[in-house]
Amino acid sequence: MARFLLTLYITLMAVIFAGVANMVFCKLPIARRFTIPMDGGKTLSDGKRLFGENKTWKGFIGMMILGSLSQIIWGLCLTIVPSLEQYNLFYAAYKNVWQTNSWIGLLLGFAYVLFELPNSFMKRRLDIRPGKTAENRWKWLFVFIDQADSLLGCALVVALLVPITWQQFLGIILVGSGTHIIVNQVLFRFHLRKNPF
């Protein structure tokens, strides 16, 4: 079990770093021209927004760029500790070089934000405010979905690039979701998130 968890964390640690960095980036008063909603403020025939105010081009592009940079930096860190490098699933099939890490990180960042969009779409249909979760008996289901959607995208990228077991696929989603909740709690404490989930 320890080796299983270590493999998941070593493989996706760069995505965790990128997610935190992107949260900080979105709060900074830079690149303001990209702080525009991805849906352009448009509504559908039901009168509700497509994704809402929180899904901006700044966050979307930021996650891809920071995903790439984080993967490069994490790859360099792992060359310093070769005993950990072997646990990264990507390096079983690809060399740990910055060129490879740049496009792997870009793909992971892209999948991370892309797979958040269907959830945002559904929440707008259910009148759940942007940045919030459901306040009814389905609350914990939506808390899980809020954390798992982006991890599903990352798990698919990993599965497309390297051979993994179904246990590893589910592990990325479940362990990643649990980690996501913990990270969100920390970000909430430091006022980088408006809510703890």
From TrEMBL:
Q: Where are the transmembrane segments?
A: 6-25, 59-81, 101-119, 140-162, 168-188
Tell me the superkingdom of the source: Bacteria
Pfam families, alphabetized:
CarS-like
Keyword annotations from UniProtKB, A to Z: Membrane, Transmembrane, Transmembrane helix
Question: Which species?
Answer: Candidatus Enterococcus willemsii
Q: Does the keyword Secreted apply?
A: no
Protein name as catalogued: CDP-diglyceride synthetase
Keyword Transmembrane helix on entry: yes
